[in-house]
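can u pls check wat happens w/ adenosine-5'-diphosphate
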Amino acid sequence: MPVRAILLPLLLPALVVAVLVAVLDTPGGALAAALVTLAGSLMALGVSRGALQRQLDTLALHTRGRAEGALTVPAPDPDQLEEVANLEGAIDSLHARLSEQHSRLTQEARTLTAVLDGMAEGVWVTDDAGTVVRHNDALRDILQSTSGELIGQRPLALLRNDELHDAVMRACREGASTRLELELEGLFPRTLSVRVTPLGRDLPGSAAVFHDITELRHLEKVRKDFVANVSHELRTPITAIRGYAETLQGGALNDPVMAPKMVEIIHRQSERLSELVEDLLELSRLESREVRLTLTEVPLAEAAARAADTVRPKAEGKSQRVSLHVPAELRALGDPRAVEQVLLNLLDNAVKYTPAGGRVDVYGACEEDRCVVRVKDTGLGIEPRHLSRIFERFYRVDKGRSRDMGGTGLGLSIVKHLLQAMEGEVKVESQPNEGSTFTIFLPRAAPPKAATG
Ligand code: ADP
């Protein structure tokens, strides 16, 4: 509505009053003039109120449109009252500030969600009653919860662990932080390290971070077992050496029958000790990848022949026949010393665990891109339940027998590591009392290029 439309009803009665005062010039005339003025003002008020009402309605409509996300700002109305225009401007700038804040908060929330979902650790957030209100993707994996909603659940219902429940409640009620370790049972048992903290900063509720430390605990156990095994293995020969040395010192040295026997045992045990130390050092070098293997062409027949020559005296002592069936032209890609060591360990075991009069055969072949060597014996064999474990350090099927035969329990572990370092592998097939076959695979050396005329 134009401003003229509002001013006109106001000015018109004033004009009328002026004319009446001039014409009548009486007290009664003044009263009439006042009445006319009042009537005119009321008319003007009525008209301007209607205009204001319409403009405010339009403003409310625009404001609602903006609040509901209308992208366009309506064009300014030239007849709009200044106050209404100011109000609209203030609403516009308030709206602009709010939408900027809103998009910043949305961005922050999205960043937070991305960070939480990118974490390997599981995270949950609870309200002040200890009910889960938010969690990241990893939590589901860590808790092995494939189905069911986690949100809305209480810790006790999710993990049935009083310690965790208490920690969450302490964080919510007393603002206390707790670190604890949980053992999860089930198909894949897991060990979790959990840190529960209050949200803080006047936010009610708590947060918990779940860290899967199953592998860490497993490695710690392997290390502890290894140290215990090494100590035990070393103690056995040391005890024997010390015992016999003390007996000799105590007078047995003068016993012409016993003394040589005891010295022989001391000698054997000291050799065993040095073999053990050698094997341990070799294994530790392999595991720390200190050993740099030089990969070159290895003639397999030669490597097998050298290994067989080493064990032959022992085999002959047990009336065993060691036969080689490895074609001379076979060439694997490997480290010559390492390949020989692998074959020696396998042949040594074959002779060791095969009774007198048995046979040990070594077969070789090269396929498309790999070479295969089989060491087959007619010995004691291995029960299926031990097969997957015999490549572990110190694992023996029969501890007593292995030690009696001078085994360190490390031979096959060294075989496995050496082959891995050459990108090869080892497999075993065995039946109790029917013998064993250890098969090694190595990459094949590239065949020599044909000479061109
Ligand atoms: P060890 O020094 O005890 O021979 P290894 O690591 O070489 O240690 O072998 C681990 C275990 O595997 C042995 O103790 C033995 O029980 C079993 N084993 C290895 N080779 C043979 C084989 N050819 N026949 C039967 N058992 C074997």
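The first helix runs from residue 3 to 24.
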